[in-house]
Amino acid sequence: MKYSGRIIAMLVVSLFNILRYFYYHQYLELPFKANFFILTFIFLSVALWCGMQFDRVKYYSEKDPLTDTYNRRTVEKYFREITRTNRNKNQKLGVIMIDLNKFKEINDTYGHHKGDELLIHLAYIINKSVKKSDRVARWGGDEFLILVPTSTNDFESDYIQEFQQKLENENFEEFPSVGVSLGFAIYPDDGQDFQELIQIADGAMYKSKGKRLLYEY
Questions:
Q1: Spatial contact of 127 and 69, defined as CB atoms under 8 Å apart
Q2: How are strands ordered across the β-sheet holding 179-187?
Q3: Catalytic entry in 142, 158, 193, 202
Q4: How confident is the model over 141-196, as pLDDT tens digits?
Q5: What CA–CA distance (Å, rounded) separates 160 from 182?
Q6: Cα separation of 75 and 36, whole Å?
Q7: What letter does residue 169 receive in the DSSP assignment?
Q8: Are 63 and 1 in contact, with CB atoms under 8 Å apart?
Q9: pTM higher than 0.85
C-alpha cells in the first residue's frame, strides 16, 4: 500500500499550521500559547487518519484482495497509458494469459480454502518471476494476466521461454498434479484493441492446454 494520501494530507496540514503561526503570531502579533502545539498535533492526527483511509480505498480499488495483484480495471487503464507511450516510441507490448489446469478439481477435492491458497501462491510465483516494469493482474477465477511494456521482436525466445523456465523451477508440494497453461499476444503486431489481444492470448493459452500442459509439478 502506498503512502501518497498520508504524505499529501500531512504536507497540507503542516503548511496550514505554518501559515496559521505567521498569521496569528507574526502578522496579528497575538501572544504565542502552548495550545498551538496541541491543535497542531490534533490537526496532524486527523490528517494522518484521513490520508490513511484514502490510501486504503485507493489500494483496494486497484488490487485483487485475495492475490494482491492488480484488478481488471487498473490493468486496462495501464494498457491505455502504456500503449500511448509505446506508439510514440514505436515499441511493442506483450500480453500474457496464464491459467491453472485442474483448478476445479483442487476446489472439489480439497475445498475452496486450499484453492485460494493455490491462487495466492501462484500470484507470488508470477510476481517473483516478472520484471518490475511488468503489470500482473488477476483476470478472473484462476486466470492471470501479465502486461510486458517493452517487448522485443523475439518476445517468445527472449521473454516467454525465460519466464517458463522460472515457473518450472517452482513447485507446489501439496498439489503435485497441478499444471499451468500460457498464451500470449503482441501489441501492435496481433492487434491494437485490448480485448482483441486478450482473446488472441486466451485462445493461444487454451490451444496449449489442449496439446499439453505447459509444465506439471
A1: yes
A2: 135-140, 143-151, 92-101, 179-187, 215-216
A3: 142
A4: 899 999 999 777 778 887 888 888 887 777 666 666 677 889 999 999 999 999 99
A5: 9
A6: 46
A7: T
A8: no
A9: no
Cα(30)–Cα(144) distance, integer angstroms: 62
115, three cell numbers = 484453492
Mapping DSSP to helix (H, G, I), strand (E, B) and coil, where does residue 131 land? coil
Q: What is the mean pLDDT of residues 130-149?
A: 92
Q: Which residues of 63-94 are buried (b: 16+ CB within 10 A; e: fewer)?
A: bbeebebbbeebbbebbeebbeebeeeebbbb
Q: Give whole-number Cα distances, 103 to 99, 119, 122, 178, in Å.
A: 9, 9, 12, 7
Residues 129-157: b if buried by 16+ CB within 10 A, e if exposed: bbeeebbbbbbeebbbbbbbbbbeeebee
Q: Is-catalytic flag, 142?
A: yes
Name, in order, each residue with C-beta under 8 angstroms of 151's C-beta and a sequence gap of 6 or more. 91, 92, 93, 94, 159, 186
52-105 pLDDT, tens digit each:
887 777 777 788 889 989 999 899 999 999 998 888 888 899 999 999 888 888
Task: Tell me the residue length of the chain.
Answer: 217
Cα–Cα distance, 63 to 123 (Å, whole number): 12
Give how far the C-alpha of residue 51 lies from the chain's centroid of Cα atoms, to the nearest Å. Answer: 21
Q: E strand or H helix at 9, and its extent? A: helix 4-21
Return the pLDDT at 143: 93
Residue with cell 500559547: 33
Joined grid coordinates for residue 114: 486450499
Task: DSSP letter for 66, please.
Answer: T
